[in-house]
Write a structure and sequence with these properties.
The chain has 305 residues and is mainly α. The protein contains 14 helices and no strands. The longest helix is centred in the N-terminal third of the chain and has 29 residues.
Length: 305
């Protein structure tokens, strides 16, 4: 393959829409948390973290597509696939380069904040994403949990870093109320992404069978997986109702967002019960992404507040 065609394929395989969602969530988190320090210091510190997050996530998408190329012959029949690359060494070179950038960012960040544990964050995530792509049985539920933990961590690690910075410079951490809010947002991101992973497993069931990857729908059946996702959706809606009654007198804007999330989840549950075809599940996956986007906008409330 000529080099001129490579950027397009890499752009698609690195999931730019998903990376933009991660970027948006982290930027909104930064606005909400009001970090201390000069503008230059903030750009350096959090710029390194965001760059590291995006590169390690992109590397995860790349290596997952590489080991899933058999399944993707069916799942992504009309889309660019990893088989577009001419050599395995070429794929691995890009994979290692992305992870090296993340490792470099983590090392500089750890030295800047004077906390050595930050050096281990990106390598640990990279290993988990590699194992998820490499070990077939991790597709059976546990892998979806790992991916969803990573999604939640992209938000929760920012207040953790800010806590370390405030302890270093101000000798006090973030307020417990602020942490509770971010924990609720992170838990919501985890829950919604877990639902989306199960829906995508149903969507890709034919390709996963072809690639001998045992996902949850293959193990327990499509209908049971649908019922599980509907149950999770109902639980998520009930949690949103609880938070609505907790805060509607404090912030009408946040209450409106919660109403949108509740209605979105109820509509999603109804559609999931009736879904039968691949296109239905593709639409459901997009619906969950939209609900996650609405949920992320709740971070604006803390910024205004």
């Amino acid at each position: 393959m000529g080099l001129k065609r490579l950027p397009f394929h890499y752009l698609y395989i690195l999931r730019p829409a998903n990376l933009m969602m991660i970027l948006l969530g982290q930027v909104l988190t930064l606005l909400a948390i009001a970090p201390i320090g000069t503008k230059q210091d903030l750009i350096t510190t959090y710029g390194l973290f965001i760059l590291g997050t995006l590169t390690v996530a992109g590397a995860g998408y790349l290596i997952n597509d590489y080991y899933d190329h058999v399944s993707d012959r069916i799942n992504l029949e009309q889309a660019p696939r990893i088989t577009a690359f001419s050599q395995t060494s070429e794929v691995l070179m890009y994979y290692l380069t992305l992870n090296a950038i993340a490792l470099f960012c983590g090392g500089i960040l750890a030295d800047k904040i004077e906390y050595a544990g930050l050096m281990l964050v990106f390598p640990f995530v990279a290993v988990l994403l590699y194992l998820y792509a490499r070990i077939p049985w991790l597709k059976l539920g546990l892998g979806a949990v790992l991916i969803s933990v990573f999604v939640a961590a992209t938000i929760l690690l920012i207040p953790w870093i800010e806590t370390l910075r405030r302890i270093q410079f101000l000798e006090h951490a973030l307020d417990d109320t602020v942490w509770c809010f971010f924990f609720a947002v992170g838990l919501s991101a985890f829950w919604l992404n877990l639902m989306r992973e199960f829906i995508k497993d149903i969507q890709d069931i034919n390709g996963d069978k072809n690639g001998q990857r045992t996902t949850l729908p293959i193990a327990i059946g499509i209908k049971r997986t649908q019922n599980l996702v509907v149950g999770m959706g109902v639980m998520g809606a009930l949690a949103a109702v609880y938070w609505f009654f907790m805060i509607y007198t404090i912030s009408y804007g946040l209450a409106v967002l919660l109403i949108a999330v509740i209605l979105g989840l109820l509509f999603f549950c109804r559609q999931t019960l009736n879904a039968k075809h691949t296109q239905n599940f593709k639409s459901l996956s997009l619906q969950l992404k939209l609900i996650m986007l609405i949920g992320m906008l709740s971070l604006c409330w803390l910024y205004v507040f």
